[in-house]
Amino acid sequence: MSNIVCLGQFVIPIRSPTSETLPDQPQQAFLQQGTARVHVWCAPRQMVGDLSQVQSNFLGPMLGPVGSCSTPITKEGINSSEQSLIKIRAFVITKICKDPQLRGCIFGLASNKDSISSAFSKAQITLSPIWNYDPSLFFNIPQMSVTPTLTSTPEEDDSSRSVLRNCVTTLKDHQYTALKFLKRNESTERNTIEDLWNHPMNSWIRRSSNPSDLRLEETDQFTSRGSILADDMGLGKTLTSLALVLATSNSAKHFQTSGFGNHLLQSSATLIICPLATLSNWENEIKIHFSRGALTYCVFHGRDRGRIDRERLLSSLIVLTTYEMVGTSGNPLHTNQITIESLDICWFRIVLDEAHMIRNPNANRTLNIQKLKSKFVLCLTRTPFQNRLTDVQSLILLLKIWPWNKEWIWKKHLIPGMNVGSQEAITTLNLLMETVCLRRTKDVLLNLPSKVEKVVVTLNIWRGVGFDRIFPTAHHDTAVL
């Protein structure tokens, strides 16, 4: 099963639905390759409707010859001799939509990933990541993103690699891809946020929004201000983040003398806010992976933080601190002590390690961090979604990208839509996450073998005696049976 991957989820409106009444509850479904179109059936044999002609033209051949039916993924996996390239776990939904919809997820061989994703793209069907995907429910099959590979010009590659010469550790391919993603989301040359808002799939929000909601305020920014890096643990999010600091060091130094922060002092530093338990790890990563002096840094924590020269805070490339040093949360007994917020500094970038710690939008920690000023923000977390949609809302609000940082777009559109399974809300949220969030799993990227755990059981003295008596003849006795 190690060569099989889940390629994401899909939502397909069913064209030409039959007049038969369908149950309100989701019904397990399968596809059949017809002579002209692909038919949608509910188990055991209830015809629901057809896919569109375009969808049938590109998805039909993946099912096999005429008459072939799709099958769900099983523990047997996918046989290389099968004519079908895909396995589909799908359901027909009728209760929350005007016309029936086919919803499900796609499985295929990793070697066929490109051809499968290309067929869905040509069929105008979006394959989007399953954010709460649980491999244990699908025979431990990992999920693989079909997001298009980031490309860059030779000049961009040469520039990045030149700056990264002071990184003594060679970045792995997936780390370099992440670095390019993070840089693109901090670029002013490509306004992906404006493209996202004007995307045809988001017209439902634009049509139903109040004109007053769509009015930009002075503090609103219609530009990209950062990313969410949600890679699996062990893929090097820390190293990738530090490489980003090094790769953008020239821009950071220029920012220090620009007028971005208005009345605030501007720092070239990336303020890294992390749990106290990982503070020393960040220091070690800087010392291990980078040439001495390549990443100038200081640690703003503990009693000696007040002794740090302000010029050092402004000119360093990195300032390491903890969540306890933001606002007054770290000084319940001494509220007059210096905190990050009291410095009145506009940072070049803020990095939140374990960013899910601010998932509660009403917590003091979240509110204090939202008051900090910076040009860019990078959130590091393995779990952008934990229990509810407001978890990721807190991260998006921190990026301060209009209109996704506004309460109305979540309360009036996204959250109500997701609660009823609206296809429009699902598509919009997936587009948003694909734009600002990068998530990969180590099972796919590192091509790891199946996990095997060995547990050594120590027998007590009486069981040990019994084992010693039975073991010598066990092989013979079982052979007789």
Topology at a glance:
Layout lengths: L3 E10 L13 E7 L4 E5 L3 E5 L2 H11 L22 E8 L7 E9 L3 H10 L31 H10 L9 H12 L7 H6 L5 H6 L17 E4 L7 H11 L1 H8 L8 E2 L3 E5 L1 H14 L7 E4 L9 H6 L2 E5 L22 E9 L10 H8 L1 E8 L8 H11 L7 H13 L3 H14 E2 L3 H4 L15 H20 L1
Parallel strand pairs: 7-13, 7-14, 8-12, 9-11, 9-12, 10-11, 12-13
Antiparallel strand pairs: 1-6, 2-3, 2-5, 3-4, 5-6
In short:
Residues 218-402 form the Helicase ATP-binding domain. The chain has helices at 53-63, 113-122, 154-163, 173-184, 192-197, 203-208, 237-247, 249-256, 276-289, 310-315, 364-371, 389-399, 407-419, 423-436, 442-445, 461-480, and strands at 4-13, 27-33, 38-42, 46-50, 86-93, 101-109, 226-229, 265-266, 270-274, 297-300, 318-322, 345-353, 373-380, 437-438.
